[in-house]
Write a structure and sequence with these properties.
seven-stranded mixed sheet; 645 residues; 17 helices; alpha/beta; 30% helix; 17% strand
Length: 645
């Protein structure tokens, strides 16, 4: 159940609006009580959205408890004298101004409460080149600084005034601030809408769960009965640069070096505003260029944010739910974070058709996270798609799926889903498909059978194919003047991989593959077939492994509600839960016939050590395409790059 306010701009009936804004009022909870009691009597359960709108929040969240933003202000001064400078205050940028147009609809969409800014750091650096333009929409006016000249001056600020004996030269003074974002939940059925709770502060997260589902609501009586759990929508924030009060000590503890003298490197306008960067598609240049390794510093900063969001929000949500016999279901993606770890931290990882342009990749990320972290259930939200709006390729694919469903088996091949631009065209085939389907309801687009195309050029793969969870890898050769072969990927039936189809697909590939790949041969009983040089694994042992992977899901294949222990519920400490997930992941990796690393320009040393351990245990490791040449992080970069190479 998701109380979401959308598509009501033309509603003028006051009684309707009064009912809409009755969310979080006693009559609303009275209705919930009746519905959940009726559901429990019928053996049904419901999930509730984490309050109204998204990201979660509301008028119960104070401004100071909303998401935290890091912003900066800069001023240029001449050196060779005593500087007494009143520090400039941060201002809104293009990622804020561009969305003020949304507020003409009457909704509070974006804020920038500069008056609430708190000083975090002040530093100075000599200017090498460049100057910021006067317009906030000048997004490529990067200023280059001398990294050897950086001085941290935070301790020399008194009452907002910097006192400093500036050496000769032209200097850029950069003041970094933390301030509340004032971001509002989109689509919240509340007036006022309030603010989004800070996902990086555990105390605020726990407090909001108590408010949203605690004693005052009457919902505890339904825990584990009519109320199965709660749902968190995707993590799509509208902030300039996400941060938190303890960002500097957390960064040092996790990344191993001091961020403060390197802070100018992280400033990129709208970096954590999903709407600005991904939906509108504006990618601003960095505000400053400090070192040749600035991209690594930004990687480390984003990785720290990822760790904090997962630990303080996603894992905290799952722990709070488990302690009360509930489940936490979440679409833990949207912002730039470790998607597999984030999805796996939920009791039930969830994906949706709206993510990744409707690509199957989103489905596979959720199912892979579930496999790695021992989550037996995965859910996905889909929208009804009118075939008349699809191009002829997609219409044909959907027709094949329908015919195959009528015959009781999956289609032998399908085509890729259309891009956003293709949805506007209607070919004759699509029109005929639309007429044939008039009046027919499309209940779902099946994600269970998918096809990937791969092309080989020379000696390396440009793309790769993974066949089911018992991942066999291959290279499929394409003729010069025709399309690449299409590979039907075996699907799971209630968690049970179809081993016979997997073996047949492997044999099919083996008969068509003639390119040479780079295979790291394992020492176990299973051997890669080297005569074709493609790494096709079609041994009987592979089928047995595939059957073992799906044994648990097959045993629970009946359409009954999973047992509580299967859902990972219970009053277990979070540390023990993490240990169980880690042990499950280790066991799963040992069952894999192979691991494919395709076109990875960089790789963590920790990942390389893990791959070496798998290879020592007999799991072949295959590198296809460009080999990794460096580590992604900043600390000891030169040494780390050599180790990777």
């Amino acid at each position: 159940m998701q109380p979401f306010l959308s598509g009501m701009l033309n509603i003028e009936n006051e009684a309707t609006w009064e009912r809409v804004y009755g969310f979080d009022e006693p009559p609303y909870y009275g209705t919930l009580d009746a519905v959940m009691s009726a559901a429990a009597e019928r053996g049904m359960q419901l999930d509730l959205t984490h309050f109204s709108g998204g990201p979660p929040g509301g008028p119960e969240i104070n401004l100071d408890d909303s998401l935290t933003v890091m912003a900066h202000a800069a001023e240029r001064v001449k050196g060779g004298r005593t500087v007494a400078l009143e520090l400039p205050k941060p201002g809104a940028g293009a990622s804020e101004y561009i969305f003020t147009a949304m507020e003409f609809t009457g909704a509070d969409f974006i804020n920038f409460p500069a008056a609430n800014a708190r000083l975090l750091s002040v530093l100075a650096a000599r200017v090498v080149a460049g100057e910021h333009g006067w317009s906030p929409f000048d997004l490529d006016d990067t200023v280059t600084l001398d990294p050897a000249s950086v001085q941290v001056l935070t301790a020399r600020v008194e009452g907002g005034v910097l006192h400093w004996e500036a050496p000769p030269g032209e200097w850029q003074i950069i003041a970094s601030y933390l301030l509340p974002s004032g971001e509002v939940p989109m689509g919240a059925a509340q007036k006022p809408q309030g603010f989004v709770v800070d996902h990086l502060r555990k105390r605020q997260v726990l407090g909001h769960y108590e408010y949203a589902f605690g004693k005052r609501t009457g919902l505890p009586a339904h825990y584990g009965r009519g109320l199965r759990g709660f749902f968190n929508d995707s993590l799509e924030f509208r902030v300039k640069r996400m941060s938190v009060e303890d960002i500097l000590p957390e960064f040092r503890a996790r990344r191993g070096y001091d961020l403060e003298p390197l802070l100018p490197a992280i400033y990129v306008e709208g970096k954590d505003n999903v709407y600005f960067r991904e939906i509108v598609g504006i990618h601003a240049a960095p505000e400053f260029e400090l070192t040749a390794q600035d991209e690594r510093i930004r990687h480390d900063y984003q990785k720290t944010l990822s760790d904090l969001v997962i630990e303080r929000f996603v894992e905290t949500s799952a722990s709070w739910a488990a302690q009360r016999g509930l489940v936490s279901r979440g679409q833990s993606y949207g912002m730039d974070l470790d998607i597999l770890r984030a999805l796996g931290a939920n009791t039930i990882p969830e994906t949706e058709q709206l993510w990744a342009g409707g690509s199957d990749l989103g489905l596979k990320m959720a199912s892979s996270a579930a496999a790695l972290y021992g989550r037996p259930l995965v859910s996905a939200g889909v929208l009804r798609v009118d075939p008349a709006r699809l191009d002829h390729h997609a219409a044909q694919a959907q027709g094949r799926r329908r015919q195959a469903a009528a015959r009781g088996r999956e289609p032998s091949s399908t085509t890729a889903r259309p891009t956003r631009g293709q949805l506007t065209r209607r070919s004759p085939t699509a029109k005929r498909a639309g007429r044939r389907s008039a009046g027919r309801r499309t209940r779902r687009i099946s994600p269970r059978s998918s096809v990937r195309t791969t092309r080989c050029s020379g000696r390396t793969c440009r793309r790769s194919i993974a066949i089911s969870r018992a991942a066999r890898t291959c290279c499929a050769r394409a003729s010069r003047d025709r399309r690449a072969d299409l590979l039907p990927v075996p699907r799971f039936s209630r968690g049970q991989p179809r081993s016979r189809r997997a073996r047949a697909a492997a044999e099919w590939l083996h008969s068509r593959c003639g390119s040479a790949g780079r295979c790291a041969r394992g020492s176990g009983a299973d051997q890669w077939q080297k005569d074709a040089g493609c790494g096709v694994h079609a041994s009987a042992e592979a089928g047995r492994r595939a059957r073992r992977v799906g044994a648990h899901a097959a045993a629970a294949g009946a359409r009954t509600r999973p047992a509580r222990h299967q859902l990972g519920l219970g009053q277990r400490p979070l540390a023990a839960e993490r240990e169980d997930r880690r042990a499950h992941a280790d066991g799963l990796w040992r069952q894999l016939p192979a691991v494919l690393v395709a076109n990875a320009p960089m790789i963590e040393q920790q990942t390389l050590h893990a791959l070496a351990g798998l290879e020592a245990e007999g799991v072949p490791v295959v590198f296809a395409g460009a080999l990794p040449e460096r580590q992604p992080g900043y600390l000891d970069a030169a040494q780390g790059d050599r180790e990777v190479q």
